[in-house]
Amino acid sequence: MSLLHSLKSLNSFGLAQYCADLIEVHSKEAIKAVCLPLWQQQTSMLILGGGSNLVFTQDFYGTVVRVLSKGIKVSEDEEAFYLEVEAGENWHELIQFTLEHGMFGLENMALIPGTVGAAPIQNIGAYGVELCDVCHWVEYLDLVSGDFVRISAAECQFAYRESVFKDTLRNLAVVTAVGFRLTKNWQPRLAYGPLQSFDSATVSAREIFDRVCQVRSEKLPDPTVLGNAGSFFKNPLVSAAYYMDLAQRFPTIVGYAQTNGAVKLAAGWLIEQAGLKGFELGNAAVHDKQALVLVNRGGATGQDICRLALHVIAQVQDKFGVVLEAEPRIIGADGEGDLYV
């Protein structure tokens, strides 16, 4: 099979893999015209947004469909602003747009890489806010019926880094647009780390945005300089009882109580305490400023990244009895698979 299309510039790890075919689509009609026949012909197909949540472990023997559709529509009522945003819009640029137009609620999620269409798939989030907090609906192309379907946020079955698109609709849907509801009665969300120093009575959404951008820029490497996929591991959830046990043994452990009684641990803290910050394995490494990030030091392969990830998982499990899960999708020759080497 001829593999003519380089994917190196289309994935934020900068992994030098190729695909058999690469098609760019600029509208939801084009998404349907391209994706539906590919799915019906059972051609291996990968929907690509910003390429910031992928690890290519091999050349992809199928068609990569790059979604570049653009468009933002805004309406409002007395209570909220309502946005209809095409899947190919850049996520960070959407947040800048909302701030410039006096619409608040997305600022905690500034500088998360990727596109709007990818956001609901894993329910992206940062600094105490998740997509599910502001999502109104999601529209997708149903590859079985060929129809565009719009479902409510509740129907998306959002959970921590999870959604219906990673479960029952996996490989059966292509997100084409996302609807947002941003309340006019904005309340700042300041529970996490660097935002706790703000006064909730006086802080502005722009100040939160600026602080998040500052912190992320200081801790997270620029993927154009040092290939990475942002946070590589999910923050693990443990029972309150197990958290108390860990806290007795590790008094400085970082945890956040959840509404369901579980406690979310800071994966970066666990990795750092396991002595892995800056750890190198071949051309892949744990970032020396943020242990939650794995980086391509130059010339690393997807196999190298996976091997390092598995080492981190093993070391953290050995020290804390907690199993970390990788966030990025692992893409092999025929599609998505599990973390492996």
TrEMBL record:
Its cofactor is FAD. It catalyses: UDP-N-acetyl-alpha-D-muramate + NADP(+) = UDP-N-acetyl-3-O-(1-carboxyvinyl)-alpha-D-glucosamine + NADPH + H(+). GO terms for biological process: cell division; cell wall organization; peptidoglycan biosynthetic process; regulation of cell shape. Keywords: Cell cycle, Cell division, Cell shape, Cell wall biogenesis/degradation, Cytoplasm, FAD, Flavoprotein, NADP, Oxidoreductase, Peptidoglycan synthesis. It holds the Pfam family FAD_binding_4. One of its GO terms (cellular component) is cytosol. It is an enzyme of class 1 (oxidoreductase). The active site is at R161, S231 (proton donor), E327. One of its GO terms (molecular function) is FAD binding. Its EC number is 1.3.1.98. It comes from the Bacteria. InterPro entries: FAD-bd_PCMH, FAD-bd_PCMH-like_sf, FAD-bd_PCMH_sub1, FAD-bd_PCMH_sub2, MurB, MurB_C, MurB_C_sf, Oxid_FAD_bind_N. Residues 15-185 form the FAD-binding PCMH-type domain. It is found in: Cytoplasm. Gene3D superfamilies: 3.30.465.10, UDP-N-acetylenolpyruvoylglucosamine reductase, C-terminal domain (3.90.78.10), Uridine Diphospho-n-acetylenolpyruvylglucosamine Reductase, domain 2 (3.30.43.10). Pathway: Cell wall biogenesis; peptidoglycan biosynthesis. The keyword Cell cycle applies. NCBIfam families: murB (TIGR00179), PRK00046.1 (NF000755), PRK13903.1 (NF010478). Cell wall formation. HAMAP family: MurB. Belongs to the MurB family. This is UDP-N-acetylenolpyruvoylglucosamine reductase. The lineage of its organism: Bacteria, Pseudomonadati, Pseudomonadota, Gammaproteobacteria, Alteromonadales.
